[in-house]
Design goal:
The protein is of the alpha+beta class. Helix content is about 30%, strand content about 30%. The chain has seven helices and nine strands, in the order αααβββββαβαββαβα. α1 (about 20-35) runs antiparallel to α2 (about 35-50). The longest helix has 18 residues, at about 235-250. The termini are far apart.
Length: about 250
């Protein structure tokens, strides 16, 4: 009685930051700035609590520019709450074919290559679908609940772009010529990328497992002419057809 105290973990003193920690905060702020006003404002408040206004980081990161998530973005609070509470949603979505209604299990709101997506499953499907947030027309939270797939985090961690859709059950073999080989040694351009052979001429044989062709096609077109699809034949033929179509348009 008559004694006041702070809750555990609360203090009036500012926490001390190491030199590395101090440099890291403004660096993260540069990344967050690309995501949208709400993220920038929230993280900026954190930085201001720990750092002097004039501090500048030695590091810089550039995310793809695209659709930023604004504070007033419609439906975001409904989606956030539904994901947090594991509630299904009823969503109206505009695509190239027109507007359609879906009952979905919403899993994550994700940022890939400059765009924001809702990752979700339709009732009765195992395939993970993606819905561009800027194409969503309405969202209604439902009372029905759902269970999150056990492999969801693994699926996200293995992804290299937004085109994953479920179990990666298709093996792709790529031949990567010497000019591109050193980049493939340093970075994963395709899911579950594995170098299975390094040749004397400096080229590589690379193996990947995909769930959809678009998981690997962007990397193939990025590195043409220094990359070829060896297997499967259907994907190799698809690349050939797309290149031929392109050449016919510029001929």
């Amino acid at each position: 009685k008559g004694v006041y105290s702070f809750s555990e973990g609360v203090a009036l003193k500012k926490p001390r930051l190491s030199e590395e920690e101090a440099a890291f905060l403004p660096f993260l702020q540069e990344i967050v700035r690309s995501l949208g006003d709400n993220f920038e404002e929230l993280f900026g408040g954190i930085v201001r609590k720990f750092m002097p206004a004039e501090y500048d980081s030695s590091f810089y990161a550039k995310l793809p520019s695209g659709v930023k998530l604004r504070k007033e973005y419609p439906f975001i609070k409904v989606l956030d709450n539904a994901i947090d509470q594991w509630n299904k949603v009823r969503l109206r979505y505009k695509s190239a074919k027109g507007e359609s209604d879906y009952t979905l299990k919403p899993f994550k709101i994700s940022f890939y290559d400059g765009f924001w997506y809702l990752l979700a499953q339709k009732d009765g499907e195992k395939k993970v679908r993606t819905f561009r947030l800027d194409n969503i027309r309405s969202v209604r939270k439902l009372e029905a609940g759902f269970a999150v797939p056990e492999n969801l985090q693994e699926l996200l961690d293995e992804s290299v772009n937004i085109w994953f859709s479920g179990e990666r059950d298709t093996k792709v073999i790529l031949e990567v010529a010497e000019p591109a080989a050193r980049y493939f040694k340093q970075r994963s351009y395709v899911p579950l990328q594995k170098i299975v052979n390094e040749h004397k001429d400096g080229s590589l044989t690379v193996e990947t497992m995909i769930s959809a062709d678009m998981e690997v096609l962007p990397a193939v077109f990025q590195w043409i002419p220094h990359i070829t699809v060896q297997e499967p034949a259907a994907l190799r033929d698809k690349v050939t057809a797309l290149v031929s179509e392109y050449l016919s348009r510029i001929a």
